[in-house]
Amino acid sequence: MDNISLLKTLHQDGGNPSRDQSELKKELWLRREIANVLRSTSSPEELMYEILAILSRGFGASGASIYFMDREGKNLSLKASYGLSDEYRNRYRQIEVGTNLTGKVAKTGEGMIIHDSQKENGVTPDVVNMLHYRSAMVSPVTSGSEVIGVIALIKEDPNFFSDNDLIMLELLSLHVSILIVNSLLHEDILRERTRMEDILDRVEEGIFEAELPEGIGPGKSPSQDAVSLLEEAMIVLMNPSFGRHAGQKVSLGDPISTAFDRKQVLGILKMALEIGEGNGIERRFVGEVERVFEITMLISTEAGRIKGVKGIRHDVTARARSQRSLMLQKERTELYLDILLNDVGSINKELIGFLEMATTASEISEIQGDYLRSTIEGINKSSEIARKIVAMSKIQEGMPLLKVDDLGKALKDARDIVSMDGAHKNRDIQIEVIPDRMPVKVDDLIVEMFRYIFSFGPVDVLSRIDIRARDYSYDNVEGFLVSIDMSDIIVDRETRESLSRAWSGEGGMVPNDASNLLIAGNIASRYNGKIWIEDLPDHVGIRGARVMLFFPGAY
User: Fold this and answer.
1) Quick one: angle between helices 24-38 and 163-202, nearest 10?
2) Which conformational region is residue 374 in: left (phi greater than 0), alpha (psi within -120 to 50 degrees), or beta?
3) d(Cα 282, Cα 268) in Å, to the nearest integer?
4) pTM above threshold 0.70
């Protein structure tokens, strides 16, 4: 039914007292319940079942089903049912387009009502006998002009569903189409993930981790520590590729030295001990062929003691082939995401256009107008959710997608997260926000940025963190300055200078224990923010660090 016909129907029903008291109340309830389900975090399967349960209760049906069209447009597959027998679900798990009521509606794209299955042609006797229904109502679910699924409701009583019921179900199907498109995308992503995992399983990339029986304490030189790691660290984690790289049988619990060429890996270990990470090239014979591996090692630490090493060993020749395959899969997944956003946007644009036209009609009641405006707001929110899902699912390249948010709220959210973190229970975080609202353009990483700062420093240090924020101008740009005073958390001058060079893009390494601040500074740069670190002033009366952050305002 086109928008004009629907508008006329809405006008006619608006003057019908029985419509106001029963039909409108039913439609309001159905739309509200479906909107609540669509905002939930359930899996697609649970969402579909919940929607069928809502439709059954709202229309008084005894059972319901939802079918998806396959990509070839030849068959419909049962994706969810409510109140239907196991016998039906097993026998009619797939229906050919054009057969049965469901298949006919999928083919024609037009809804259908069966008033009495015992008197009308076109029904499938086998289905009628299995489900014992007398009335049925079937509606197509469309994305744009394409049928992507079918919803069917049944009832044991004859003449149960009306033409108004079918009109209402067709309108509600526009909401359900969002769920179906999301579910189809979910299946595509799972399929692509399986293919990507299969690729990763076949590439020559070895993963390993080795631990020492006792950690290495202070006092030794990196050269001595490297020898200790190589001779004493035992393998606790590895994948099959790592064993193949070693050129011999390597098992969990073996010394790490059995899996590497001693001379070549000692230099990499020494580098990792000196600067927190190391990488290099290892040449070795695997079978009778010399192969070249790139090794990346990260030091695994606990409470300041070196507990072992962990890293990845890459077969350099296989890496390029793997990257090409992964890029293809990424491009394909991004295509599916773009299709989702386009379809959702098209559906919502058409629906909002109709609803906005309906709100201008003089015949509608006040309650109808309020409902239409709240529905438009809900549809706009669903579009925003879809855009956010797409944006967060992609690996961003270049500038991030920013939105206006309150800096004070981000500070409080980060404080709450850290306060619930058992590892940092010694952080006493006090916030003094002077402006009532501090609008800045950021993304969801803003909370993570403050969490990294609040979590900086040894976990066993009792620290009070005092936070003040105020209006501030930096380099002729108006914005906000956040001052974070951290008692008993020391950032020495050398570390501050190395962080400053890293944040300014000059490169260089920073101490491993300052990685939280390095990440925080990198996040701040996403918002054109500035960050610097000072010692606490003498008048404060305690030792510690002051982290200063400036954010341009979003006025």
Assistant:
1) 10
2) alpha
3) 10
4) no
- The confidence score (pLDDT) of residue 180 equals 66
Residues 530, 520: Cα–Cα separation, whole Å = 11
Buried b (16+ CB within 10 A) or exposed e, 199-212: eeeebbbbebbbbb
Burial of 217 (0-12, 13-18, 19+ CB in 10 A): exposed
Question: How does 503-528 read in b/e, with b if 16+ C-beta sit within 10 Å?
Answer: beeeeeebbeebebbbbbbebbebbe
Q: Cα 459 vs. chain centroid, distance in angstroms?
A: 29
Task: Please state, in angstroms and rounded to a whole number, the distance separating the CA atoms of residues 68 and 147.
Answer: 9
Ramachandran angles phi, psi of 471, nearest 5° = -65, 145
Ramachandran quadrant class, 553 (left: phi over 0; alpha: psi -120 to 50; beta: rest): beta
What's the rounded Cα separation, in Å, for the pair 372 and 14? 13
pLDDT of residue 402: 83
pLDDT in tens, 190-238: 777 777 656 556 656 788 889 888 777 766 778 888 888 888 889 988 8
Q: How confident is the model over 486-531, as pLDDT tens digits?
A: 998 888 888 888 888 878 777 666 776 777 788 788 888 888 899 9
The secondary structure of the chain in percent helix, strand, coil, rounded to multiples of 5, reads: 50, 25, 25
CA dist 445 and 394 (Å) reads 15
Query: Which spans in 431-474 are helix H?
Result: 445-454
What does the alpha-carbon distance between residue 442 and residue 450 come to, in Å, rounded to a whole number? 13
Q: How far is CA 218 from CA 166, 273, 472, in A?
A: 77, 12, 44
User: SS in 3 state form for 324-377?
Assistant: HHHHHHHHHHHHHHHHHHHHHHHHHHHHHHHHHHHHCCCCCCHHHHHHHHHHHH
Q: 146-155 and 63-69: which strand pairing?
A: antiparallel
Token digits for 186? 């979910």
What string of DSSP letters covers 513-537?
Answer: GGHHHHHHHHHHHHTT-EEEEEEPP
DSSP state of 401: P
454-463 confidence digits (pLDDT tens): 888 876 778 8
Whole-Å CA distances, 518 to 452, 489, 522: 9, 16, 6
Strand duo 427-433 + 439-442: pairing: unpaired
Amino acid at 512: N
Q: What's the maximum distance between 2 C-alpha atoms anywhere in the chain?
A: 94
- For 447, residues 6+ apart whose C-beta sits below 8 A from its C-beta are 410, 413, 414, 417
Residue range 278-330, pLDDT digits in tens: 888 887 776 666 677 888 888 877 767 788 888 888 887 555 455 556 666 66
Is the pLDDT reported for residue 466 higher than 50? Answer: yes
Q: Length of the chain in residues, anyone?
A: 555
Between CA 483 and CA 498 the distance in angstroms is 21
**Given this model, what pLDDT does residue 396 score?**
44
